[in-house]
Design a protein that fits this description.
The complex is a heterodimer of chains A (about 575) and B (about 300).
Chain A lengths: L2 H21 L16 H11 L7 H13 L2 H6 L1 H13 L15 H14 L10 H27 L1 H7 L2 H4 L11 H13 L7 H6 L1 H9 L6 E4 L8 H5 L23 H5 L5 E4 L17 H19 L28 H7 L5 H5 L5 E3 L12 E3 L12 H5 L10 H6 L4 E4 L15 H5 L5 E4 L8 E4 L9 H5 L8 E4 L11 H7 L60
Antiparallel strand pairs in A: 1-2, 3-4, 5-8, 6-7
Chain B lengths: L2 H20 L15 E5 L2 H11 L12 E6 L15 H13 L4 E6 L5 H7 L2 H6 L6 E3 L6 E5 L8 E5 H5 L2 E5 L1 E5 L3 E3 L1 H4 L8 H6 L1 H11 L4 E10 L10 E10 L2 H11 L13 H8 L12 E5 L1
Parallel strand pairs in B: 1-12, 2-3, 2-7, 3-4, 7-10, 8-10
Antiparallel strand pairs in B: 1-11, 5-6, 8-9, 10-11
Classes of the chains: A mainly alpha (about 575), B alpha/beta (about 300).
């Protein structure tokens, strides 16, 4: 294995390791988004669309500066997408002769970049559709990671009898999370297509589509370290056939297209005459000729217009959240964003849909959405309380977010980052509709936001939501025993979406009383009413207690020695 | 307790009551040659726990050398010990120590938590308290794979449930709940607490808690119930925060129903006194002869340590 493969393997292990760190809760995960911060296309587009210079994108700038000297080394060594495609190519690629000659597509990646830039000028970020790091993180995080969890879980189950024999606690109590995600088939199909393109040419994505590749290419037209061919070359063409990027001119093997060369050093390694080296020697005049793959000015303009018009169409779509006219009244009634998410439009301008937050979410409640927030909101994270609650002590989603589209706030502030308000559907509720003892919503609510009371005609306690105490965490919806559609659901009502300022201060101004320590009432709310019981209604004096005895039982004020039915004295 | 034994104790209780009622003298604890049905001890959590179990004959009566023991505390909530939503860590720790003293092979403290497992283990203080006894004994089990289906032959309504695999393997099951109010079932004590050892609790709510709790307890019958009344969550249970009564009391019995009944009648709930029969699932358990709620007919030994 050559130098490049070692580096690729090493980087891939780090990348996957960071994903695992993000998905576990053992190690601090605040730098789990490191690879995403290396992608210059994310940095550029997000900076334009959000009108913010993102200082935490400095690593991407460093990579770009290095590219001026080293060429597209990132693509050939570090990029997990490139490495993954190399593996796919190993399996799927066809011999050079059978490869389609699609060199005319070389300019496409620049046009992709321009489309994205055009859209971002209007504050619309489509980077999630094309950033290699966003895509590959989503692939490994939302497709591969759950599969790995599933397989380890199954193996664990299969071996459980053995663990029981060995009787080792750490194995007996090993709990493997079962991760589930929506939209995973779209991601899967996308990657199936991407891998399928190996049949056309190797690294099709990197050659023709990748906008990060396009950015690197712009800076690698005359790299300091570059491919040099000595006159030992006998023009056998082996390097042309081996180049995964098709960067060597078929007609003139001395010529290299540095916009596409990813410095993988394969040509140097395989040359039978050892005629190829990578060095900072001065180029010969013949080699100094730049093979440019830049599109024409007309193509650039068309792409820019295409980008801006797509953005305009998105901004004028029904779901658009831009401006004062777009305060989200038409958005999906169940769309709950993670706690301390920026206001919707700013959020969508920043969120790159990498899926890190969903990977990091310990309860698996964060899910990518489809069209709930329009095309602009594709794959963005939303809380699905039926899948899991949003733990008020946890803010891992913000920790791992590479673009701070979820604000990083203090622990105290976190409690006030209200995500919505619970609403009870009484016709589905076990207590309200079925007159059953339940009160699970009250049992699990960390904020004491469920008031329990008595109602005329019902013998059991029934729940009501105290809206000002509700933080929208979804404990109630998650634990509600009613199947499928819960009888208590979190809606986005009064969610706090602040781009700046204190959640606590503003929450208090809005009359919220979010607290985990405030004691509930010392008497049973509604007990006054119950001194006057309605027909068919047992008078009760505390929740869950009956004051009248059951059939066959004596009244409590009778002789204490009276026996229970069936028992002799 | 078989039927014969049951009638004997019943008769004994009646005798003692009639003696007591005659006013000649109060029934002395020493009168009963065997252990009382219920031990009620006032004192600091750990000392009172130990004393209560000793009154019932000591842990060796329950745990034989080499046994596997599961202790079921309340540690389902992200609350501190003072808030009384979870069992006091000292009670759990003392029970674990006593099990070890009785030469139990393995002792586990298990619960299926409602809130985040990590936060529950941390804030309840139970994990920390038990670390010195054995660093690998406290687990929150929130993974369905660690539960196994079990039919309930004596069920009225709940014919099947899923129980923690470790509980099914255990020789001894000890219920160690905190005494607390519950907005649906009045109280949550040793019987209601067993819902922390099963996977699917939703079904119980849908089918009716009073019946299904008893159904569940027929397969999760604790050999020993130790109710932590060191602090009682008198209002706003089971989660709280609510009014906490400092009762400094530990109640122990071989009979879950009797222990629960004694706890109901020993403390006030929402500022009022209640009889055990006013709690649906306790009444149901008594009616089905799963245990006895008529504590006035049972021997209760009360001491202070």
């Amino acid at each position: 294995m050559g130098f490049q493969r070692w580096v690729q393997t090493f980087c891939m292990i780090i990348f996957l390791g960071l994903l695992l760190i993000a998905s576990g809760d053992l190690i601090d995960s605040s730098s789990a988004d490191f690879f995403l911060r290396l992608d210059p296309s994310i940095a550029l587009i997000t900076a334009i669309s959000s009108r913010h210079i993102l200082i935490w994108m400095i690593p991407a700038a460093v990579i770009v500066i290095l590219t001026v000297f080293l060429g597209r080394f990132f693509c050939g060594h570090i990029c997990p997408m490139g490495t993954t495609l190399d593996v796919a190519d190993k399996v799927l690629a066809v011999p050079y002769k059978k490869q389609k000659k699609v060199g005319y597509l070389r300019g496409l990646k620049y046009l992709v970049l321009i489309v994205l830039v055009g859209a971002s000028l209007f504050g619309v970020s489509f980077i999630f559709m094309a950033s290699p790091l966003s895509l590959i993180t989503r692939f490994y995080g939302l497709i591969m990671l759950p599969a790995v969890h599933y397989l380890t879980g199954s193996a664990h189950q299969l071996l459980f009898p053995l663990w029981e024999q060995l009787d080792i606690n750490s194995l007996l109590f090993l709990q493997i999370r079962s991760l589930r995600y929506s939209t995973q088939f779209f991601v899967l199909l996308f990657f199936a297509g991407l891998f399928g393109l190996s049949r056309v040419t190797p690294r099709f994505w990197c050659r023709y589509i990748c906008p990060a590749g396009a950015l690197f290419a712009l800076f690698s037209r005359k790299p300091l370290v570059h491919r040099v061919v000595s006159d030992k070359c006998n023009d056998c063409g082996k390097c042309v056939r081996a180049c995964s990027m098709g960067a060597i001119d078929e007609e003139n093997v001395f010529q290299t297209c540095f916009e596409d060369c990813v410095v993988c050093l394969t040509c140097e390694k395989i040359c039978p005459e050892a005629a190829i080296t990578f060095s900072w020697e001065r180029r010969t005049p013949a080699q100094n000729q730049i093979i440019s793959t830049l599109p024409t000015r007309r193509q650039f303009i068309v792409a820019g217009v295409a980008g801006t018009s797509t953005a305009l169409a998105s901004l004028t779509g029904l779901n658009s959240s831009v401006g004062k006219a777009g305060q989200g009244q038409v958005a999906s009634p169940m769309l709950i964003r993670p706690p301390a998410t920026l206001p919707e439009f700013d959020f969508l301008a920043r969120c790159i849909r990498c899926g890190e937050c969903m990977v990091a979410c310990p309860t698996n409640t964060l899910q990518p959405i489809w069209f709930d927030a329009g095309v602009m909101g594709l794959f963005s994270p939303a809380i699905k309380p039926r899948r899991g609650f949003c733990n008020p002590d946890c803010h891992r989603c913000a920790e791992v977010c590479p673009t701070e589209s979820i604000r990083v706030i203090s622990k105290k502030e976190r409690l006030w980052a209200k995500t919505g308000t619970a609403v009870i559907h009484r016709q589905k509720c076990l207590a309200w509709e079925h007159n059953q003892k339940c009160m699970v919503c009250d049992e699990v609510c960390p904020f004491g936001a469920i008031e329990f009371t008595s109602e005329k005609g019902l013998s059991v306690t029934v729940p009501k939501v105290k809206e000002e105490k509700c933080s929208g965490c979804g404990y109630c919806e998650y634990h509600c025993p009613v199947q499928n559609q819960s009888a208590i659901v979190v809606t986005p009502m009064n969610a706090l979406r602040l781009s700046q300022g204190s959640f606590k201060v503003i929450g208090k101004q809005r009359g919220l009383k979010i607290s985990r320590e405030e004691k509930g009432p010392a008497t049973y709310p509604g007990s006054e009413k119950m001194n006057d019981p309605a027909p068919g209604f047992d008078s009760s004096t505390a929740p869950g207690f009956d004051s009248s005895s059951a059939p066959g039982f004596d009244q409590e004020n009778e002789e204490k020695t009276s026996a229970a039915p069936g028992f002799s004295e | 307790m078989d039927r014969r034994e049951f009638i004997k104790t019943q008769a004994k209780g009646a005798l003692m009551l009639s003696v007591g009622a005659s006013g000649l003298f109060l029934p002395e604890p020493g009168l009963a040659s065997t252990e009382p049905d219920i031990a009620k001890v006032k004192g600091a959590p750990a000392a009172a726990t130990r004393a209560a179990v000793e009154l019932l004959g000591g842990m060796r009566k329950f745990v034989k050398p080499g046994n596997r023991v599961v202790i079921k505390p309340n540690m389902s909530f992200n609350r501190t010990p003072e808030q009384a939503s979870n069992t006091h860590p000292d009670v759990i720790r003392e029970l674990a120590i006593m099990c070890k003293e009785a030469q139990a092979d393995k002792v586990f403290i298990l619960d299926h938590t409602l809130a985040s497992a990590k936060m529950c283990l941390l804030r309840s203080g139970i994990e920390e308290a038990c670390r010195s006894v054995d660093p690998n004994m406290v687990y929150a089990i929130n993974d369905s794979n660690l539960y196994r289906d079990l039919p309930i032959p004596q069920a009225v309504s709940l014919n099947e449930t899923q129980i923690m695999k470790e509980v099914l393997k255990a020789d001894v099951l000890i219920a160690a709940p905190v005494a607390k109010s519950h907005s649906a079932t009045g109280v949550s004590l040793s019987m209601k607490g067993m819902m922390g050892l099963i996977w699917d609790r939703w079904t119980l709510h849908r089918q009716g808690l009073d019946e299904t709790i008893v159904d569940m307890c027929t397969v999760l019958k604790a050999d020993l119930a130790v109710i932590d009344g060191s602090r009682v969550l008198s209002t706003n249970g089971p989660n709280g925060p609510g009014k906490v009564l400092k009762e400094n009391t530990i109640i122990a019995s071989r009979d879950m129903v009797a222990a629960d009944a004694c706890a109901i009648e020993s403390f006030t709930w929402y500022g009022k006194k209640f009889k055990a029969k006013q709690v649906g699932h306790i009444r149901e358990a008594h009616r089905r002869k799963f245990g006895r709620m008529d504590i006035d007919n049972l021997t209760i030994k009360t001491i202070t340590v």
